[in-house]
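Reminder to self: tokens first, then the designed residues, so the page reads top to bottom the way the pipeline ran.
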């Protein structure tokens, strides 16, 4: 299996147990949140080796996150602790449809103080793939420099790079700067995963073909646009493109993490040598499984669970 490197900010997540606004919620269940955490767990459950880079506060939540990652077979060699800062936290509304309200307390968190020094010990020859998102560059100037340096070193060492914009406008002071930074990173990747709304915001174009062309013109080989329940639109630099239908879902519990699960399916499929169409279909399957669970990552399947789900859908 492949060896994967990623970086992000894991957070303690408190999910409301009853429906209604966060303002009125009284009871919460604790999970671990973070786009890159979700991606890491999904890849590890499929048998890939994942190393997760971050910085945690020396507090109960940071120690719990560290243990959680290790319990999920994720390598934590490059995790640092910052004793004077706290681990980020997040609260999430319970809903029966649509996206939940989310409130985050991550300003001046331990992860936001990461800088380029954190990657000096990385042995790039030990990895095959780097997965990045647009979240760490939004945390601080030093995090932004760190992510650009990781992109640079990954390309110099011939790692395949995937990039999910994961736009978080609330973390940016200027949306024009957000689009500029995210596009600069996206255009250096081998495969990108913008949601169609994100693609429109980042490129100023509305049609999926035009959005894809924007990135192909910059040299991106594969552009996979997430269309939610409708599936995905994939475009290749050679001009080929196709739609992939979404899998039917009996009941949507929580949509958070579905896009990360989709990226898990596509990246794992490509690294395992599956045909592109099969890799995208795997992504759609894992995305469907993700929305049927309350946590951000507890619905991500093992290889056996994924095979069983795909077999049931084929029979159906």
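Designed residues (316 positions):
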């Amino acid at each position: 299996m492949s060896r994967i490197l990623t970086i992000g900010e894991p957070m303690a997540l408190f999910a409301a147990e009853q429906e209604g606004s966060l303002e009125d919620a009284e009871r919460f269940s604790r999970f671990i949140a973070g786009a890159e955490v979700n991606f890491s767990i999904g890849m590890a459950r499929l048998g890939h080796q994942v190393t997760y880079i971050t910085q945690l506060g020396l507090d109960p939540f940071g120690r719990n996150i560290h243990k959680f990652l290790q319990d999920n077979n994720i390598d934590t060699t490059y995790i640092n602790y910052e004793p004077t800062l706290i681990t980020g936290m997040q609260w999430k509304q319970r809903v029966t449809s649509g996206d939940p309200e989310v409130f985050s307390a991550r300003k001046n968190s331990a992860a936001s103080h990461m800088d380029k020094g954190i990657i000096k010990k990385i042995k790039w020859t030990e990895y095959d793939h780097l997965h990045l998102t647009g979240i760490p560059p939004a945390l601080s100037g030093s995090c932004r420099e760190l992510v650009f340096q990781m992109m640079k070193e990954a390309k110099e060492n011939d790692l395949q790079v995937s990039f999910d914009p994961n736009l978080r406008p609330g973390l940016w002071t200027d949306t024009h700067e957000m689009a500029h930074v995210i596009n600069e990173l996206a255009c250096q990747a081998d495969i990108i995963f913008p949601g169609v709304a994100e693609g429109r915001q980042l490129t100023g174009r509305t049609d999926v073909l035009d959005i894809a062309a924007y990135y192909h013109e910059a040299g991106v080989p594969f552009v996979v646009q997430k269309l939610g329940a409708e599936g995905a639109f994939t475009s290749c630099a050679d001009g080929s493109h196709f739609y992939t239908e979404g899998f039917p879902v009996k009941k949507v519990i929580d949509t958070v993490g579905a896009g990360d699960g989709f990226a898990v399916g596509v990246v794992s499929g490509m690294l395992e040598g599956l045909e592109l169409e099969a890799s995208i279909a795997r992504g759609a399957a894992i995305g469907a499984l993700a929305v049927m669970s309350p946590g951000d990552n507890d619905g991500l399947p093992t290889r056996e669970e994924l095979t069983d789900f795909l077999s049931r859908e084929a029979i159906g």
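DSSP finds ten helices and 14 strands in the chain.
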